[in-house]
Amino acid sequence: MASRFLILCFSPLFFFFFLAVAGAQTNAFHGEEKVFDVRNYGARGHLERNNTLAFTEAWSKACQWTGGRSKVYIPAGEFYLDQIAFYGPCKSHITFTIKGTLFAPRTLYADKKAEWISFRYVDNLTVNGGGTLDGRGSYSWPLNDCNKNVNCRAMAMNIGFAFVRSSRVNGLKSLNSKMGHFNLFAVEDFDITGVVITAPEDSPNTDGIKIGRSKNMHISNVTIGTGDDCIAILDGTTNLDISNARCGPGHGISVGSIGRYKDEKNIEGITVRNSVFKGTMNGIRIKTWAKSVSQTSVSKFLFENIQMIDAGNPIVIDQRYCPHNQCDSSGDYHSHVQIKDVKYNNIWGTSKTRAALMMQCSKTFPCQGVELSDIDLVYKGNGPATATCENVGGSVHGKIVPGDCRM
Ligand SMILES: *[C@@H]1O[C@H](CO)[C@@H](O)[C@H](O)[C@H]1NC(C)=O
Ligand SMILES: *[C@@H]1O[C@H](CO)[C@@H](O)[C@H](O)[C@H]1NC(C)=O
Ligand SMILES: *[C@@H]1O[C@H](CO)[C@@H](O)[C@H](O)[C@H]1NC(C)=O
Question: Span of the secretion signal (predicted)?
């Protein structure tokens, strides 16, 4: 056997066989992915240099590449970028690899586009590389007056995806956005994983991930500490699964607010599981406007295996939402948003506020099918935690602490 193999090795036949295999591999490799390095289009790592044109050119070459998959490559280093939008459709799968750090302009309002960097109308996009988007928000936070001015001028968010399908972000850091960090609108079959989002606890409106009108999304292994919502789930979002999220500081994961505007769409099929909230102002919160013009529904939710560490208001349904006194008196309005089929299972830990479980549903559209099982939330201060349940229909299973909630 061994001698026959040796003979084969020295035979010309084997030699050709070897060449054929090696050749096929090299071809496959080249056909696999064509790399467009932004440096070849004039990008330079220097804080004063405007790299926008170089990035745009690298993208359009990669996007129009017809020889197979393509990749835009941003090497390690620091690159200054003005507002930029990457448009599809592209010819094939496209990867955007960021190794270095991209720096935003000091001030950038959201007048023309909502985000500093955006991807639109692209399919089969992968953004990866583990690099950083630095929004340099500290220059613009002092200009933000949105907490007292309803018509305030919005600043650009760090990165946006709109009308993007079958795509993913895998490994990216987003730092100090001027307003929100990630903005997802009308995306479909979209995964976010290995993302780290950071802004100071007192930075205004620095939401981590905002999602609207999108479907079939997975968010996993994310670490989000900001001055606003960890993840904000807005109208028209369906089939979203969030797992292994670490939120805090910030305002927690929120659904809504919904009900304020006409033409809003339902929110349906949201799961949050295996996650931790640490030092957040709220935990998991559903909020609908007291003064609502649209009659929408929020349904089929599962919140499961969630640990609260020193989180304020760990479980909240607020159908009297009316910030900055925009309702003459919020008690006079009853939200028209129907909340139904919401399950809370195995939620435990410590609450920073006495109100650990607070459900204030609408008088005209009471919550239906709310299920609580195995809840164990302890108040960090003196005395027991409390539970409030107004206009809630549903059932209770297993151990519930605090347990003074009647359905
Ligand atoms: C940066 O370059 C882009 C593209 O050429 C241009 O539109 C933009 O105005 C430039 N920004 C600055 C601050 O010069
Ligand atoms: C995206 O991927 C799907 C599935 O592989 C394919 O059918 C579709 O043609 C691709 N589109 C682009 C633009 O690459
Ligand atoms: C989670 O994300 C972090 C940050 O990108 C990464 O270092 C880590 O390997 C990821 N963990 C898993 C289990 O994927």
Answer: 1-24
* Ligand with smallest separation from the Cα of 244: 3
Domain residue ranges of the chain, discontinuous segments joined by +:
89-401
Q: Is 336 a catalytic residue?
A: no
Task: Say what the pTM is.
Answer: 0.91
Q: pLDDT of 143-166, one tens digit each?
A: 999 888 888 999 999 999 999 999
Query: Ligand 1 pocket, 82 CB below 6 A?
Result: yes
Query: Within 6 Å (CB) of ligand 2, which residues are found?
Result: 89-90, 92-93, 123-124, 166
CATH class of segment(s) 89-401: mainly beta
